[in-house]
Structure formats: structure tokens, C-alpha cells
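Support reply, case 0932

Customer input (verbatim):
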Amino acid sequence: MSTLTTRMDLSRTTRSRIADTIVWIILAAGAIFMIAPLLWMVSTSLKTQLEVFALPPVWIPEVPQWDTYVRMWQDSYVLSGFRNSAIVAFSVTIIGTFTCSLAAFSLAKMRLPFRNVIFIALLSGIMIPFPTIMIPQFVMFARIGWVDTLLPLIVPAIFGNIIMIFFLRQYLESVPNSLIEAAKIDGASYWQIFWRMIMPIIRPAVAAQFILWFMAVWNDYLAPILYLNTPEKQTLQVVIANMNVQYATQRDYPLIMAASFVSLLPILAVFLIFQRQIIESVALTGSKG
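Our regenerated output:
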């Protein structure tokens, strides 16, 4: 009987190892498939123009052309585009995340009159596609002199993002109202409740939404191309698009790939930073639950 049990345990262990190996192989293949375009972009930025069009394809350039990154900063508007994108993305996401958190807390836990009506009105705004309000917004910003500045990209967004407010409000629905009432009985103000109690609870959700919002603002192309005309005031995505038109005819694809790789670095940095915070926060929340 013990021998049979031992064989069954070994069989289960073997099947488990085989299953883990298969899963690992599938995930590794998927990771290679996903990272291959990024590696090709970095490799192309270091190639000569002849190596870009060589057949069979050249993965590793014979002599890396590091001067491509020097030319990228000197011969284009990448530096000003990078600065403008950073100003827009960080101001919108940092200030907007704070206002979204306050709005979600107010709509979820404060006794506001018609708060459900306000929430439904906000959600109805998601149903309106941007192209339908694009022209009226442009006319409005043109009349107040904001066209060809970064203000149309920053000011409307710092007052909040409807999707983020919805997500944080739904996240706060799991927080018992008794905690809020107990804090009020102890003399805490709504600001103290929000900053000391609510923010630590919603930190994982805020971090996740911050990543998604930062990626959306950083990669936005439609609004910047609509409002920004001067090359020095354009964001990085518009600069890269203009480089694609200007340098593609010259077959200078290494320069375009170098700019594309540089534009990826802030998103990668933000993702790595907040991914760690998400994991730590979720682990802490799970241990408390």
C-alpha cells in the first residue's frame, strides 16, 4: 500500500513538473515574441543605413553607430519634444491623480446631494468620442489664445480623468462606511480621513491607474498635433512623426529608431517603479485581509 502511495505521489510530482515546464516554455516563447520588436528597434538605431536594408537581416551591427544618438539630439527637436512631453505627462498625471482621488472619495463616501446623478453624468462623458468635441474645443482655446501652447493639453486634464474616478470609486465601495464614521466620531476631518485612511487603502489602484494614464498622455498624438504648430513646442510623439516624414525619404531609419527608443524610456521607468509599489501594496493589503 505504501509503495502504491509513493508511486502515486511520484506520478503527481512528475505531472506537476511537466505542466510547469510546458507553462514556462509557453511564457518564454511569448516573452521572446513580445520583446523581439524592442530589440530590433534598439539594434536598428545602432546600424548603418546599409545594414538596415541588408538581406539576410543584421541583428547585431558590426560597428555600433553610437553617434546616431548624438545626431538625434543635435539635428532634430527631440530634446524640446522630450521636455514638452515630460511637462505635460507629469503635470497631468500627478495633479490629476490627486484630484481624481479626491473626487472618487467624495462620490463614494461623502454624503453629497445628488452624488449618484453627478456620477452618472460623469460616466456619460465617456460615451462622447473626442473627435466630436475636437473642433468646438479648438475654437474655444483659439479664442482665449491657448493654441500653440501646452495649456490645452494640461489644464482640462488636471481636473481629473473619468475612467480613473470610476475605477477608484468602485475600489472604495469595498471600504466599510463604519470606518469613516468611526474616524468622524474620533474627531477626524474629511481631509484627515482621506489622507491618512483612504490614500493608503487605494494606493494599489492609484499606482495602476497612474501607469495607464501616464502611458496614454505620453503617447498621445491627436491632441498635440491639433493644438501645437511650432516645432519647439511640439511633444515628443509629434516630433517623431515629423521625423518619420522628414528622414524616411532619406532612409535614415536609425535616427528614427533612436528617437523611438528614447521615447520609450520614461514609460519603462514609470512602469518599473510603480510595479514594485503595486506588488508591495497588494501583498500588504492581502496580509491584512
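We compared this against your earlier run and they match. Two observations from our side: Confidence is low (pLDDT under 50) at residues 284-289. The CA atoms of residues 27 and 33 lie 10 Å apart. Please reopen the case if you see a mismatch on your end.
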